[in-house]
Amino acid sequence: MRIWQRLKEREQALLDRWRTLITESYPKETSLFLQKKKNQFANPVGHNIRKVTQDLVSIFLSEEEIGAPPDSLLNFVKIRAVQEFSAAQAVGFVFFLKQAVRELLEKEKDIQVSTKDWFDVDHRIDYLALVTFDAYVVAREKLFNIRIRELKTGAYHVMNGTSPFDQDDKLSSS
Question: Which of 67, 58, 50, 64 is nearest to 134 (CA)?
Fold first, then answer.
């Protein structure tokens, strides 16, 4: 039996394991919250994890060329950009898919996985990680541009209860 056919048959198990690996990367209390709360309004990060993993697994298993990133991925990396995750932290969740695939296939006794199959799996996941990285960079750039615009317009100071003139006084006394 081919690896892709088996992975498609076991898609839900693959998703469940990948989601567990992602949520376990958070602090323990957060991890429990993300796993238990299913309401998208009470738990928007957990909802986004479920959505992005579903979309990325569908792309991963499609065996077609990977195109533009899905909206769920763009939304997920925006959240991680606002949370000030490093690039490695923001993109790292994609690599948990490799672990989930390996764990799933290790349990399957009637399937032989060739070196070429492992290469194909790794290549597709690595490419998904690169697409995720590109999306994260764009999200961070937009966030920085918003912050710069806030500083230029003084909105930052109004929101923090300070006067932009206080900053001018500090600059001139330096």
Answer: 67
pTM of the model: 0.80
- Which DSSP letter does residue 25 get? T
The long-range contacts involving 85-88, CB below 8 angstroms and separated by at least 24 positions, are 87/133, 87/136, 87/137
Burial environment of residue 97 by CB neighbours within 10 A (0 to 12, 13 to 18, 19 or more):
buried
Q: CA 168 to CA 96: how far, in whole Å? A: 48
What would the DSSP string read from start to end of 36-70? H---TTT-HHHHHHHHHHHHHHHHHHT-SPP-SPP
Task: Give the tens place of pLDDT for each residue, 41-80.
Answer: 888 888 999 999 999 999 999 978 888 899 999 999 998 8
